Structures are given as C-alpha cells and as structure tokens.
Amino acid sequence: MTDTEVAPSISLARVAKSYGAVRAVRGVDLLVEAGETVALLGPNGAGKTTTLDMALGLVRPDSGQVTLFGLPPSRAIARGLVGGMLQTGVPLDYLRVRELIEVMASFYPTPRPTNEILELTGCATFQGQMTTGLSGGQAQRVRFAAALVGDPELLVLDEPTAALDVDGRREFWRAMRDVVAEQKTVVFATHNLEEADSHADRVVVINGGSIIADGTPSQIKATVGTKTIRMALPDIDLSELVTVAGVVNAQRHGLTVVLTCSDSDRALYELLDRYRSARDIEVIGGTLEEAFVALTSEEHG
Ligand SMILES: Nc1ncnc2c1ncn2[C@@H]1O[C@H](COP(=O)(O)OP(=O)(O)OP(=O)(O)O)[C@@H](O)[C@H]1O
C-alpha cells in the first residue's frame, strides 16, 4: 500500500481524446498530489468532463496514460480510494434515499456510517423520500452522499453545485470544508469563477482541450496582470506614467490617476521613488473573472 501513499492522487500524462473531428482533450498533463483541492475551471465545452471521465476510467483516452494513486483507475476505484459525483450521476432507482446510501455503503470496504453521511450532505431531512421524486437540488445532494459514503481518499466532482440554489451551494461548500479538513484530495470542475477562487487552493484553467494556466488563484490573477493602482497625482503627464516599469495603461480622473499594471509591486516602487507628492495610494487586486476572461479569450490551438 505504500505506493498509494506516495503516488500522486491523479496522474494524467499526455492524455488526449477526440470525438470524431472534435478534439475534446489535446494532450493534457496533470498531477494532483494528496491533500490538494483543485478546481478545473473552463467555459462550456472546454474539455472538463472529458478530462474527469478519463481520470476515472469512464472514457478511454485515445492516447496517454492515466493513473490514480499509481494504479489503473479501475483498480483504485475497486479499492474504494475514489468517489465520483458526475454529471451523469448515480442511477436513482426505486429506493428511499436512506436505502440507496445503505446499498452504496455495502459496496465499500470501509464505508462511513449512513447517519453521518446523511447529516453531512443535508440528506437527513428527506431520507425517507423515494429517490425517483427528488428535486434537482435534492438529487444533487444524494449524489454527493453516494460519492462520500465509501470514505474515499480522492473525490472527483463534475460541476457539483450546478443544480443548487444559493442556500444549497452554501451548504454544499460547508460540507466540503469538513471533507477538505480530513486531508482528502478534491478535484472539482466548474465554470463558476467565484467557487474556484473561494474553494480551491489550486486552479487549473482549461480551454479548447488544453491546460492554459495552473496555479493558486492569486497566481492565475497575476499571470494576466489585472492589478490597478490608484493615486492622487496632479500635474503628471499620462505619457510619462506609462513609461514606469510594470504599468501598461494610465488614465486620469481629475487629480487621480488609475494605472493598470502587469507588475504592480515593481510599478509601485518606481512610482514612489519618482513622485514623492503621490497621496491616497490604493492597490486593487484583479478578480479571477478578469483573469479568466483574458486567458480564455486568447487564441489557443
Ligand atoms: N460523447 C460525446 N460525443 C461527441 N462529442 C462530445 C462528447 N462528449 C463531449 N464532446 C465534445 O467534446 C468537447 C468537450 O466537452 P466536455 O463535455 O468535456 O466539456 P466541458 O468543459 O465539460 O463542458 P460543460 O461545461 O459544457 O460540461 C465539446 O466540444 C463537446 O461537444
């Protein structure tokens, strides 16, 4: 078992998949280490689902290699190391919610207690309902419970909050915090930037079937230089300000100048050095949304 402890939770090496003429995933390399919470962020059709389905062995790649904990996906899953919550979902057949989770628990070597799972995922209140009559949000919670019941080391979630309202999302992420605190590895696909920013410690941006950025949310924001410096600085020409290293654009609003920066730290040192009269200085961080739009609107492939 030591190999499963040291091997990355997910390893994708030059993995590619086409559907006819559509190159859904184009040679992706991705290592996810134990304990990481990774958001796979991309617009519709970016290749997120195909990537996760290949990681779980549900879709066979045309080329490249996939291992989970150093094992072929089917073996890692058979050992109960992996829980998945996918768009296709758990078949919700004619059972009560509680019965379904009990049946799922019986498939795993070391399941978590059913009561604990029902509480954690917010399913306890409707555990006696038939699975065929659930609302979209309830069905999503049941899928989450089914993914967690085997007490997996790796949790793979494809757009986990897609069917949830604002309260449902909040509850979902509250439950996830407990899972993350248990040092599990979590990978979730989303096109919700706020979720990636708030809940992942690493964001992998995918577009057109390729990974186009990979880093912490702050690193992703920094790669596209979206920080802004505002300062009161009268009597200085904008043409002079754009010559400051790290400044890419300058605008004036009365006494205030607004500078868009590719490197706000460097720009700030030089500005303070040059202009001792600068006052009311503010550095405003770019949002992940700005970074994402900038990254995904570039030409790729
Ligand atoms: N079974 C399939 N048959 C044909 N084309 C497919 C199939 N699955 C995916 N594709 C195509 O592959 C590309 C990537 O799709 P994928 O579902 O992986 O993207 P995604 O990032 O998960 O998108 P979404 O956010 O809309 O779920 C898309 O162009 C999609 O239309």
From TrEMBL:
**What compartments host this protein?**
Cell membrane
Gene Ontology terms for molecular function: ATP binding
Q: Which SUPFAM superfamilies match?
A: P-loop containing nucleoside triphosphate hydrolases
Sorted alphabetically, which InterPro entries does this protein's record hold?
Answer: AAA+_ATPase, ABC_transporter-like_ATP-bd, ABC_transporter-like_CS, ABC_transporter_ATP-binding, P-loop_NTPase
Keyword Nucleotide-binding appears in the UniProt entry? yes
Question: How is this protein situated with respect to the membrane?
Answer: Peripheral membrane protein
Q: Which UniProt keywords apply?
A: Antibiotic resistance, ATP-binding, Nucleotide-binding, Transport
User: Any keyword Nucleotide-binding?
Assistant: yes
Pfam families from the entry?
ABC_tran
**What protein does this entry describe?**
ABC transporter ATP-binding protein
Q: Which organism is it from?
A: Ferrimicrobium acidiphilum
Read off the lineage from the record. Answer: Bacteria, Bacillati, Actinomycetota, Acidimicrobiia, Acidimicrobiales
